[in-house]
Design brief:
It is a single chain. This protein has one domain: Metallo-beta-lactamase, Chain A (4-Layer Sandwich). Helix content is 27%, strand content 28%. It is globular and about 45 Å long. This is FprA family A-type flavoprotein.
Length: 244
């Protein structure tokens, strides 16, 4: 698995873990992220159980294991949080932040030592060694209980499955040509996002944020003007196509 520092200012960093060449062929490629601030770190959508050993090996090269005090799961899907039972053994003093709606589902992955901190529907925030991290409601995008993560100091939005693209294993970390990127996103968003009303609500919320990077759970990261291009494209896209 590859790791890449996306943002760094003093003791504040965003790190991406992705493009694992040893990933099983039929397992979807995922992006995992970590926010580091001084002596605390938070893993965002830390991945499926099959990625745990690769993730752990990469993470401990970036921070001491005891610095990982928080985890975040945007929703309940196995590709982002089925590794929880193993993290539970590695990080017994950590706290998992996730939608309140999914607690009883997520516990099926195994959680005996990690504490569960439910995120209310309206969102919330935590402090990471004094750094404010915000949970932005993204309900029905595509899960009925779902959140994005925003770091106002780094100006980074971790958008989860919003902005996801089905890309190749050797694809670049960043979107290089937005128009060529659209076919990699279109069917996923039209099928997996069920509600145009929910879509417009999320777009309205994030349009008020100052964002330099939008980091999805699959595919390339959006930077600069491509963030607005994505929001405009998504705004006009008709979703929920399985319902005729």
């Amino acid at each position: 698995m590859q790791s890449k520092v996306l943002f760094e200012h003093g003791a504040h960093r965003w790190v991406m873990f992705a493009r694992d060449p040893e990933k099983p062929e039929k397992i979807i490629d995922t992006n995992q992220y970590m926010i580091v601030n001084r002596d605390q770190a938070m893993l965002l959508d830390p991945g499926g159980i099959e990625l745990f050993s690769a993730m752990l090996g990469c993470v401990v090269k970036e921070v001491p294991i005891e610095h990982i005090t928080h985890l975040f799961a945007s929703h309940q899907d196995p590709d982002i949080i089925s590794s929880l039972g193993l993290w539970d053994k590695a990080l017994p003093s950590s706290t998992l932040h996730s939608p309140w709606l999914w607690e009883s589902f997520i516990r099926h992955f195994g959680m005996e030592s990690i504490q569960f901190s439910p995120i209310k529907d309206e969102g919330g925030k935590i402090l990471l060694s004094g750094l404010e991290i915000q949970f932005i409601p993204a309900h029905y995008m595509h899960s009925s209980g779902n959140f994005s993560v925003y770091d106002p100091e780094a100006k980074v939005l971790m958008s989860g499955d919003i902005g996801a693209a089905m890309d190749t294993q050797d694809a670049p970390f960043f979107v290089r040509d937005f128009n060529q990127h659209i076919p990699k996103m279109e069917y996923f968003h039209r099928r997996w996002m069920p509600s145009n009303k929910a879509k417009h609500d999320w777009i309205e919320r994030v349009s008020r944020l100052d964002i330099d990077m939008m980091c999805p759970q699959h595919g390339g990261i959006f930077k600069g003007d491509d963030i607005r291009r994505f929001l405009d494209w998504l705004d006009t896209l008709d979703v929920g196509i399985a319902v005729k």
